[in-house]
Amino acid sequence: CGRGFYKSSSQDLQCSRCPTHSFSDKEGSSRCDCEDGYYRAPSDPPYVACTRPPSAPQNLIFNINQTTVSLEWSPPADNGGRNDVTYRILCKRCSWEQGECVPCGSNIGYMPQQTGLEDNYVTVMDLLAHANYTFEVEAVNGVSDLSRSQRLFAAVSITTGQA
């Protein structure tokens, strides 16, 4: 096979053109490499296009009721070329002094769950009263964990009321 083509198996009768966002720059390639910033998930066959992580979720809004926060958002503008987008929530508790934040820990409840969310809403329960929190909502897909670029997320900071 020439440049820009590949043959993944010796049983293949003819060469295939490299899928979108991939290339082969030497003759006789058995696969095509992804362009910079694009990835192929381990479960993706060689004939599918290389894809990238999704952009951040949009229009993040919250509703707070004492020590429970409901978050809702819109899907990302760009799904990275994949249909397997889910969401994960990162909770940080922040001190009153600017900038000191630590992960919330395991005593916080998430309904329906913290990661692998297919819907675009979550309720976070059992927060401390009169505390500052930051929530990051990240859209992820099958190649997000392969990317070395900066995470893209929507964030909101809130202060809880009394318990």
Automatic annotation (TrEMBL):
Q: Where found?
A: Membrane
Instruction: Provide the primary localization.
Output: membrane
The molecular function terms in GO held by this entry are:
ATP binding; transmembrane-ephrin receptor activity
Specify the protein's topology with respect to the membrane: Single-pass type I membrane protein
Q: Fetch the SUPFAM superfamilies from UniProt.
A: Fibronectin type III (SSF49265)
Instruction: Identify the domain of life.
Output: Eukaryota
Q: Where are the transmembrane segments?
A: none
Q: Can you cite an annotated GO cellular component? A: dendrite
Q: Which UniProt keywords apply?
A: ATP-binding, Membrane, Nucleotide-binding, Phosphoprotein, Receptor, Repeat, Transmembrane, Transmembrane helix
The record's InterPro entries line, in alphabetical order, gives: Ephrin_rcpt_TKs, FN3_dom, FN3_sf, Ig-like_fold
What GO biological process terms are annotated to this protein in UniProt?
axon guidance
SMART domains assigned: FN3
Ranges of residues in domain Fibronectin type-III = 53-163
Which is one Pfam family of this protein? fn3
UniProt name for this protein: Fibronectin type-III domain-containing protein
Q: What is the lineage of its organism?
A: Eukaryota, Metazoa, Chordata, Craniata, Vertebrata
